[in-house]
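Pasting two entries for a bug report.
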Amino acid sequence: MKILILGAGQVGSTVAESLVSEANDITVVDLDAEKLRLLQDRFDLRTLTGNASHPSMLEQAGIADADLLLAVTQSDEVNLVACKLAASLYNTPTKIARIRSADYLEHPAIFNTANFCVDFSICPEQILTEYIRKLIEFPEALQVLEFADGRVSLVAVKAFEGGPLVGNPLSYMRTHMPQIDARVAAIFRQDRPIIPEGETVIEAGDEIFFIAATGNIRTILNELRRMDKPAKRVMIVGGGNIGLRLALSLEQDYQVKLIEHNKKSCERLAGELTHTLVLNGDGTDENLLASEHVADVDVFCALTNDDENNIMSALLAKRGGARKVISLINRNAYVELVQGGKIDIALSPAHVTIGSLLAYVRQGDVAVVHSLRRGAAEALELVAHGDRESSRVVGRRIDEIDLPKGATIGAIVRGEQVIMGHRDMMIEADDHVIVFVINKQMIRKVEKLFQVGIGFF
């Protein structure tokens, strides 16, 4: 696939890194020559320095025969203009724009073919806000992801010493929870993936990904984890786009405090938030955190634009007694260093966002893609089409399907019914199949499995 990426920031760079290993022809355009040089030094791709909204630059970048345009610069206006030019001058098949401004998002007609011709718009800040809210709703979880319009959830938890599964094989799970059908999709032990089998024994510290109907998630977490009390008090550091969105999302249901160092921003935030206590101060000020009773905070979220400040304030909050701390970190090297230590969850905005983009790049009928473990693995929701003659999955039991090593079918959604992916389950046409892939090298093979033969058409 020929892909043109406009913007070499965190989102653009992460998308390029994810897709370049999958035999895609990628060109990245940005005004910052140094960012492009770093990208070209690391990956096999083409770069161009210039304004991504200029027709001459798009022409040089190869828009005329591009299959996909990803406009993910920092400027909404540049992204919109680029999509309009791609549609009007070159008839580019798929155009995706990153849009940050709520003003644009509140008027969806702006994106239609009569206006800016954006096929899909993504708002990383909103995606991240919804992601963090899920982590607050389920304080025991490391990751909570939804499929099939929310009917199925994939949840990651860490096994703890003395927990009901530790020291037992996975087959014990069915004995322990006979009333609920759930499936372990993957296990990571010391950052290495383990393909789950019935006889696989869980060890303390294992990261377990299980999948179940969304309505059963709370019960399963009760069984697998020491049940944390529901979160009530949330403290947010940083009143930027993400901090404000999160506070707006939470303030009706939680007790929220927001710390912002800029006084003018505090005044603006206080005017927009009705039930949130806005404080002017430094999130790395240990005395301020103590005076605001950080020890009583259930979830502490460090969401400024400064990685070092986020790490420091999260560490101070944890030391001060906050139950769970979440830190927003842009630099991948920092994420790897701090994840799972004193900081409970280190969030990379680009990796949280990338799943929304990958769904449009994947081949076959892909409804949803979620990036897992900071891009190391993926979970896909694929729609099965055809019949036994034209498809390699329809009309076959799961144990008859030639899944590549490292891929697991976790669940099937058939209409409103959620069915766990047990070996004897038959896949039917139009089923939504949730596939967990622990090795990204196998993504193409999984996609090909779900593509129908030419005879189907």
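Entry 2 (this is the one that rendered wrong in the viewer):
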Amino acid sequence: MNQSADKSIFPKIAETVLGQLGLSPAKDKMNTDFRANGVLTLGAELELQIVDAGTCALTPRAEVLLKPFKPDSKIKPELYLDMIELNTGICRDANEIEGDFSKTLDLLVAEGERIGLAFASTGSHPFSRYAGSDVYPAERYNDLIDRNQWLTRRWKVYGLHVHIGMESGDECIRFNNFFMRLLPHLLALSSSAPFWQGEDTGLATCRPTMYEALPTAGLPYFVQSWSEFTSLCETLRKAKAIASLKDLWWDVRPSPGFGTLEIRVCDSPATLAETVAIVAFIHGLAHWFKDHGDWLSQVPQPQHWLMRENKWRVIRHGMDADVVVNAEGDNQAIRGDILSWIEKIEPYAMKLGYIAHMDVLHGICAKGSSSARQRSVFARNQSLLEVTACNMQEFKARRPLWE
């Protein structure tokens, strides 16, 4: 999330003084000071595949692609040289997110066409392999590879991260605990990674499985206050489980430096229309919860087994999953639950101008996510090359190409 407006020199002075003393603020104290920066504002980060326009294979040309863009542009490097990340600024609503991404995509696509590159934004590339992939030359990325070895090597997957502005740390934890119950819904809507290294995984999305071998990834822990969260983070730092909050690859996490709650569970949706629709859904849910905060006290806190089971079911079945709705083991189709939430937030969608985005969500519920579209293409001729070409075509069209 773009925070260029805040350029106070005092943290830099403090960091310089600590450096002269042989200390490091990141290592000696976990920075969990919550810096509120707008209430229910939005920001988004979208990871993209850099694809050779001729072969449809991933190609490690991020450095060439980034040359015309300034270092502070909204186009950023990522872990591998065949990945790129787009960032928005701080936006008031999902329509501004759409306008922000659209302008950046116009620049990116034009430069890509000039040098023979195309793009896709599904959660995985259908046939390219991760072995031997070139890491972007940055110290943090090299440290990640050194620390986690093969586990990080598999991170050739692509996600959407959505930031929601919070007024305080305690409020961030309340919204965190609300959205923890809706992580399967967001993953189902965005699921777009059925193929991996030339194979059908049998999953609606294989992307989450790439992270969950690490103890600080996947489902977060329930905490009830900001002080409880900061205590947990400090304990993890002291135990050398993490060096900073960036080492928490949770599906949803507070980002105190940005003053946001960051929802990280989503695959990169295949199209801009789906991306914006999911952001609008998240924003509508946040507005609903702001007015119905007592809802948390009216429903039991899900047990860990239940949350893990529901996430697995969506990983496996996507929009066709049945999820567990209570500790007694009752089931409900996630598609129906998503539709009930869309209906519940309809007054907010109307007020925010999101009705067209809700129509996209209805389309996903009726016809399936990107995973279903990719499998449909593959079923016709058993060609992952054609699947990839279709993903590239949808990315360029910026909307789902329903059959």
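Dev reply: Rendering is fixed now. As a check, the viewer should reflect this: DSSP finds 18 helices and 13 strands in the chain.
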